[in-house]
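Materials and Methods. Structural model of RNA methyltransferase. The 392-residue sequence of RNA methyltransferase from Pedobacter ginsenosidimutans was retrieved and submitted for structure prediction as follows.
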Amino acid sequence: MQVFHNKSKVIITCNKRLSPYLQDEVTALGYTIERSFATGVELNITLTECIKLNLNLRCASQILYAIKSFKAITPDDLYNEIAAIEWEELIDFSGYFSVTSNVDNPNITTPLFANLKVKDAIVDRMKEKKGIRPNSGSDANKTVVHLYWKDADADVFMDTSGETLAKHGYRKIPGKAPMLEALAAGVILATNWDKKSPFINPMCGSGTLAIEAALIATNRAPGLYRMNYGFMHILGYNEEDFFAERRILKDQVIKNVDLKIVASDLSEDAVEVTRRNAKTAGVDTLIEFEVCDFELTPVPEDGKGVVVFNPEYGERLGVHSKLELTYKRMGDFMKTKCKGYSGYIFTGNPDLAKKIGLKAAKKVEFYNGKLDCRLLEYELYDGSRRAPLIEA
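The predicted structure was written out as tokens:
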């Protein structure tokens, strides 16, 4: 099986509501989308082309290359169909593989049972053909096989990513309640920031928004921070294809930028975490770090820019009075200190959002984990329209 050179169905997954930004990324890389859906897109490409996508995409989670589609009603049907695949052409018999799945079948009470059936079919096939079996377990840092099984329809994929792409590899110190890197990238892309004007991130936490802004502005792709992917453990992999793509990533980095990114936080520890993560990402010299209350965050007055808050959400019910005051202060800060800017507040608490005291020009839907969130956009006019309308 010359699997790296054969075109097949490829599913690129992402967190819910990141699909529009993933679509833009995929088309910008020159690929044609066959189908898009709430949690991803479908392409028809080779496994080798998946290498480029793995290294470049900021909003993706997994890139799955289909090797077989079939009908299966019972667990035995599943086993027989999986055992018929030429796994000896895909997996090193002395290697290691894991199985993941997305299962919705009335004959399966738990996806773990489906995973076990897939694992047993692969192992039995390999023992029959090679006389020895590969090791298996739950680690996703080697070969990963993914099963999608809904009712009688099943697809088996090679997960070319392995560990999720949603983590971009530079954040060695997570900090308190960090925003996932893929989500942070999607939020920044949703602001339509021009990558040249100031990017201000008060209450920065572990700095993911500020760091992702610096990475996007300097065209630093996630593949620069990672050296292990699922595709590397599939038989037929040519490492030169990977290193050729990495050379392209290095060459496309914009080294000299006239850019102002400010990350501030009241916590000295949070700012130090941000600084260290930014240094790992190679963008610490592009970010101005400030330990201060967000109201004292320096905001350049010349020209327009973007200010993005990701505050605590609190509880949906029984909102704390301290957070209510914080949200009101954020609104006051944007009105008085950020005239001419586009202001954004990312929150999962609509009750607290009402305390901001500004009328949102736009509300963009996101999920942070399983929490329904909104990115609220505020037009902070200068001149004759000095402030937005106060929300009734």
